[in-house]
Amino acid sequence: MNGMDRVLPIAGASVRASLRGVRLIGLAALGSIPTLVVLAIVAARSPASSVHDAAQLLFVSLTLPIVMTLVTLVLGVAQFRGEIEDDTLAYLTSRSVPRALVAVGKYLGCVAAGCVILLPTAMLPLAVADAAGAGPPSSEATIAIASAVVLGVLAYSAIFLLLGLLSSSALILGLIFGFLWEGLLQLLSGTLPRLTVAYYLHSLVSLETPGGPMSGYTTVFSSGEAVAVLLGVALGMLLMTAAVFRYAETAPHRSSA
Q1: Are 31 and 52 spatial neighbours (Cβ–Cβ below 8 Å)?
Q2: How far apart are CA 154 and CA 107, in angstroms?
Q3: Number of domains observed in the structure of the chain
Q4: Residue 208 resides in a domain
Q5: What is the residue-wise DSSP string for the chain?
Q6: Does the residue 254 lie in any domain?
């Protein structure tokens, strides 16, 4: 049995566990907020150009900094923390499956679940604007949004996966990271914004949509460099998670994540 034969069932189980019940309903409702805003703008009989611009601006002002952060936080933290608290992680670690492969499987499941929720909900406002007569988005805008969603899910999932493994307060720490670290550093001058994942996501979207409503973000990097940094963050955090999981204590702690 090779590594993928062990990883894929773990990833599949992770996806199924992530996308069910109240969690799925809540995350889908969260992801639908930008679409509801666009529908409200359409209902207000705003000009087609305003609807078109709003659908894209909501992606960089709402989906990227808030919706994506919360969705990946909930999904990422739950991968390890939920099983640690329920004392079900021992089932995997006692079946001769290397812990590194368990970490990779859970990460892939988290990424898949995040994309299942975020890709459709990120594209839906554009579809609503098109149906309202604003016209379809450019191919550059569509590709930029899809790329940012996938790369953002890859990076944030790896970060929150590690937090869920390390701390029983992972949700609180994740909120601090997502809305203080990521949000606050973006407002500062100099090189500090480059220490955030959001900087590279905004850079990528802006560089890939020159002249559109999502352009104009000041960056010193190219699209390729932004992609490389985001993939580097994802890989680095995943490797760290796999390394920590080899020696981590997985006995349950009866406290909320």
Answers
A1: no
A2: 9
A3: 1
A4: yes
A5: --HHHHHHHHHHHHHHHHSSHHHHHHHHHHHTHHHHHHHHHHHTT--HHHHHHHHHHHIIIIIIIIIHHHHHHHHHHHHHHHHHHHT-HHHHHTTT--HHHHHHHHHHHHHHHHHHHHHHHHHHHHHHHIIIII-PPPHHHHHHHHHHHHHHHHHHHHHHHHHHHH-TTHHHHHHHIIIIIHHHHHHS-TTGGGGSHHHHHHHHHHHHSTTSTT-----SS-HHHHHHHHHHHHHHHHHHHHHHHHH-------S--
A6: no
**Token digits of residue 20:** 């069910």
Q: What is the C-alpha to C-alpha distance for residues 186 and 198, in angstroms, rounded to an integer?
A: 8
The residue segments making up the domain with residue 117 are: 3-246
**Mean of the per-residue pLDDT values for the chain?**
88
Select from 105, 95, 99 the least CA-distant residue to 8: 105
Residue 49's pLDDT band, with cuts at 50, 70 and 90, is confident
Q: Is residue 62 part of a domain?
A: yes
Whether residue 203 lies inside any domain: the answer is: yes
Q: For residue range 166-214, list pLDDT tens digits in order.
A: 888 999 999 999 999 998 998 888 899 999 999 999 999 999 998 788 9
* Sign for the pseudo-dihedral over CA of 205, 210, 215, 217: positive
Q: Is the pLDDT of residue 2 over 70?
A: no
**Token representation of residue 143:** 């590709």
Q: Which region, left, alpha or beta, applies to residue 21 given φ > 0 means left and ψ of -120 to 50 means alpha?
A: left
Copy the structure tokens of residue 189. 């001058």
Q: Which pTM does this prediction carry?
A: 0.91
